[in-house]
Amino acid sequence: MERTLLGSTFLFTFLFVSLGICLAGIIFRIARWFAVDTGPEAGFIPVKKRVSAVLKGTAAALFSLKFLKIFKVLFFDLLLQSRILKTSLSRWIMHFSIFFGFMMLLLMHALDEIITKRLFPGYFPTLDPFQFLRNLFGVMVIVGVGIAVYRRLRYRGPMLITRYTDRYAVALLAVIIVSGFLEESSKMISESSFNRMMSGYFSACEPHDETALKAFWSREYGSVFPTMKFRITPELLARGKKLSEESCASCHADTRTAFISYPAAGFMKPFALSLSKSRAEVWLYYIHVLACFIGLAYLPFSKFFHLITDPLTLLVNGISDKKKVNPLTAMPRRAMELDACTECGTCSRYCSVAPVFRMLQNTEILPMHKLRTVKRLASGKDMDSAELQIISEGAFICTTCFKCTEVCPAGINLQDQWLASRELLSETGHPLPHVWLKKFNASEWSDRMRYFEASWKEADAGKERYYNLTDDSNVFAPCIQCQTCTNVCPVVAARTDPKDAVDITPHKIMNLLRLGLHDLALGSRMVWDCTTCYQCQENCPQGIKVTDIIYELKNRAYEHFKKIDRTAEINEDPC
Fold first, then answer.
1. 441 phi, psi to nearest 5 deg
2. 427 and 310 within one domain
3. What single string gives the DSSP state of each residue in 264-322?
4. Residues ≥6 apart with Cβ < 8 Å to 44
5. SS (H, E, C) 83-123
């Protein structure tokens, strides 16, 4: 059976089908970048304007001094992958091994007819250094995949989540590389492969020349001839060596330089006859090539797509001003960045508010999970109010410190993603807590608490989180209502407009707690206007922890009110 790729109609057809699926998938994914709404201003900007703005921006960058920055980004960030090296040496070794090894196999081996033969006129895949380099690049990919598997097994949890797409990608890479090594090993020991080579390039001058050549190849190249029985003598080897130098040395190097395939061939020698009868080298060839074609078709719909999106994201953000966001080009860029994320978890490990996640156990605090949610929001997936509230909590806890953007290996402008998603959440009725909590006054929140308290129970974990100052009457009982706390409060002093005045002042909050009216105290706007300056607590003649109590009320109010449907109409009359 002829095993050349273009000689097989089946493989030739499979190649074009895979290539067609790949190109169609890439076009579809890129088209979605211009159609997806990724910001609050999205509904007001048509797709045509977005495409036009991107084309103009690209042309302006190519024909300006920014063009020089492109080479810098390509060399340091893309080729050397310096952004990954800054955060982790092991991750850099892993990623660089997979990237460089696979790209070299693609360019020098898979595309050897197009690239390698033109660069090196005397090229044969069985000559050195090509044979050695093919094994070296294959080992690099295996090492990188091994480190990736180890990291996924070693570092489990919310900081690094392994999904089915990760498993598929690793498995496909492993099949491609391992089948390639096994196919090369099976060819080394295959009698049929040797006979095919000999029929095309060797012509015997003497009766025993064929036997001599096989004897030499059996000794020096590791070939196995299970159907032939001959005694190897020094004379036979000498004749075989001469014949090999005359007919084979110009296109075959010592197979020992294939430092992975050659030892593997040694392990396969005991099964040489069975492998030869089953034509194992042919089936391994088909497995190897078909796995490559499947990977090609799968590329736009898998994590392999970051081979396209990451370089584009690095280039776009590398030459653009992150502080000046153009709404016309921002939306396609944000959509592209969402596809560029590989969920490597680097942003979550360096997040300034990651310790808050350990307290609240809300995964939406972590940037990696938050960006995945932003992608869901952009795709228009329906989410209920409770889910949006959890997302809002994670979104607004972020301090926009810029650290996640600095360490992102893909160069994603995460701060811009957070700000855009915050505006979207605000438009859907889930803004900052102090905004929606001030939507109602104390008595209105009290009514809503009584209305909804039958449908939910206060979580025990919420009580255990605090010292429970508000539940200890001995803490605020000494209050004599002298109003010192109110008189020194800068928030009360700053509220001169009656419409924006503090509804319940600090001394009144203490009085409400003494009367057991906790629901009114929780709904007070003073709780959320408090700046925790500690003036009230420091000046209290009774030594009451006024600020600490208000801070606790703020946390308790949030825990209570986030469970309440703020859009529901209720009967304001509790009776």
1. -85, 180
2. yes
3. HHHHHGGGHHHHHHTTHHHHHHHHHHHHHHHHHHHGGGSGGGHHHHHHHHHHHHHHS-T
4. none
5. HHHHHCHHHHHHHHHHHHHHHHHHHHHHCHHHHHHHHCCCC
> For residue range 172-199, what is the model confidence (pLDDT) as tens digits?
999 999 999 999 888 888 777 777 777 7
The span from the CA of 109 to the CA of 417, in Å, is: 40
- Name, in order, each residue with C-beta under 8 angstroms of 506's C-beta and a sequence gap of 6 or more: 485, 486, 489, 492, 526, 536, 546, 550
pTM: 0.76
Whether 33 is in a domain gets the answer no
> What's the domain range around 411?
306-436
**Does residue 569 sit in helix, strand or coil?**
coil
Average pLDDT over residues 454-474: 57
Domain membership flag for residue 196: no
Best CA proximity match to 521, nearest among 510, 529, 531, 532 = 510
Q: Residue 536 — φ and ψ, nearest 5°?
A: -65, -40
Task: Give residue 102's pLDDT.
Answer: 93
427 and 459 together in one domain? no
Residue in this structure with the two tokens 């408090």, named with its chain if needed: 530
Three-state secondary structure along 206-253? CCCHHHHHHHHHHHHCCCCCCCCCCCCCHHHHHHHHHHHHHHCCCCCC
Distance CA 249, CA 243 (A): 9
Taking the C-alpha atoms of residue 560 and residue 552, their distance in angstroms, rounded to an integer, is 12
What CATH number should be reported for the domain holding residue 355? Answer: 1.10.1060
The structural domain count of the chain equals 2
Phi-psi region of 544 (alpha: psi -120 to 50; beta: other; left: phi over 0): beta
Q: Which letter does DSSP use for residue 500 in this model?
A: G
Is the separation of the CB atoms in 144 and 94 below 8 Å? yes
Separation CA 204–CA 210 (nearest Å) = 6
Here the tokens at position 304 are: 């392999």
Do the domain assignments include residue 114?
A: no
Please state the length of the chain.
Answer: 575
325-346 confidence digits (pLDDT tens):
777 888 889 999 999 998 888 8
Residue 94 within a domain:
no
